[in-house]
Amino acid sequence: MVCKKCGYSTLIQDGDWLKCPNCGAEFFNTQIDFGISARDELNNLSDKIESVSENNSEIEFNDKEEFTDISKDKDSNVYNDTFEDFAPSFQINRKEETNQSDNNNDKKEFVLTSDDNSKESKKHNKKNKKKKDNNDKPKKVSKSKEPKQNKHKSKKSNTESNNNDIESNEEEKSKSKFKDILDFITPIVIAVIIALLLKTFVFANAVIPTPSMVNTIKEKDRIIASRLAYIKDDPERYDIVLFNYPDDEKVIYVKRIIGLPGETVTVINGIVYVQDKDGKTYQTDQTFITNEIPKGDFGPYYIPYKGEKIKSDGEFCYAENGMIVGKVQFIQQYCEKDKNGSFVTDEEGRYIVAENNYFCMGDNRNHSLDSRYWENTYVSKSKMLGKVLFRYFPSFEQLK
Question: Could you read off the pLDDT of 338-366 as tens digits, one per residue?
Fold first, then answer.
């Protein structure tokens, strides 16, 4: 480095100072690393000034910016070079005025001086950078500064959302009510359907209107009959059956089976005798009839079996053995018909019995309208609704 006073080319370094051995002048070593250059220092200062001006603050500098000569001889010719050569050794006094409501003129002095300690300058620069970064950050807009239109829109949206919530709640309530009603009705409907199916295909329910079956079944008793009893099996003697009345099928009767197909039934003094297919005759069981002594003589009644051939003289019908099986109506009630609806006959013009027939009587023999008095004497198996199993009202009892 050249002496700026005498031009001597070799200077002696003494700490932070340079000494000329020729003229004895001393100069501050401007090439010392302070951790920050004068240009960077000025840039930070200008950024600070701009940030303060953005916040509507006023910055005033002292009328005089004094750059003190720190050379020992204080010669004016020492620092006639560029500002960069002596920038670390300047002092700036700055005044800052604020527009606060108290109108106090507070003055702050920022002094940048050369210091042997470069760490303090680094810290100072870091603080300035942080302040700059904070000033550069976008400011949040408070909710109170929102436009009025947005507030109205938000209110409308809130009311609409509330209305939607109310409507959805009402829909949920109506759905829940409907679901509750459906849950209540569903088992009832299912029970009714099951009851109808059972009544139609499994059981038959009836109320006894007359005392014709006393003492076994009394008037106004309620009974249940099984429709499935005779699907595979044939009716047996002494079964109590529910059937369509042969002379008027709209009416339902309940009686006890006494005579089977192919047998002959005769009533003498109220006592019933049966002759089977083999010609054997025996008296039927009388234990279930009333205590009243039965009366009357009836018969004989021959009960034709399925497939037996009968003939008619225009007034009565006769079986193959020559016995009367009934009046002419017997053909319409019990004989078989073909696809065209005509009665099936053989070559000799005899009619063929279509269904097995049964002779039925009531247990109250002296007060029962049964096969002894009907025009169509017998009950065919196809007209039987079911076998009576038990009475459930007024008391439960299995019937035999």
Answer: 989 999 999 889 999 998 999 999 999 99
**Alpha-carbon span 254 to 115, nearest angstrom:** 131
User: What is the Cα–Cα distance from 198 to 180, expressed in whole angstroms?
Assistant: 28
The Cβ-side half-sphere exposure at 335, using a 13 Å CA radius, reads: 26
Q: State the Cα–Cα distance between residues 311 and 316, nearest whole angstrom.
A: 9
Q: What are phi and psi of 259, to 5 degrees?
A: -110, 140
User: Omega before 300 cis (within 30°)?
Assistant: yes
The reported pTM is 0.56
Tell me the C-alpha to C-alpha distance, in Å, between residue 179 and each of 64, 168, 192, 267. Answer: 92, 16, 20, 66
Q: What angle, 0 to 180 degrees and rounded to 10, lies between the N-to-C axes of helices 118-136 and 38-54? A: 30
| CA–CA separation, 196 and 281 (whole Å) | 45
Cα–Cα distance between 357 and 264 in angstroms, integer? 12
Q: Is there a contact between 238 and 380 (Cβ–Cβ < 8 Å)?
A: no
Query: What is the tens place of the pLDDT at every residue in 105-121?
Result: 444 444 444 444 444 55
Q: Are 266 and 299 a contacting pair, CB within 8 Å? A: yes
Starting from the edge strand earliest in sequence, which strands make up the sheet with 281-283, in order? 281-283, 271-275, 264-268, 298-302
Measured between alpha carbons, how far is 89 from 29 in angstroms, rounded to an integer?
A: 11
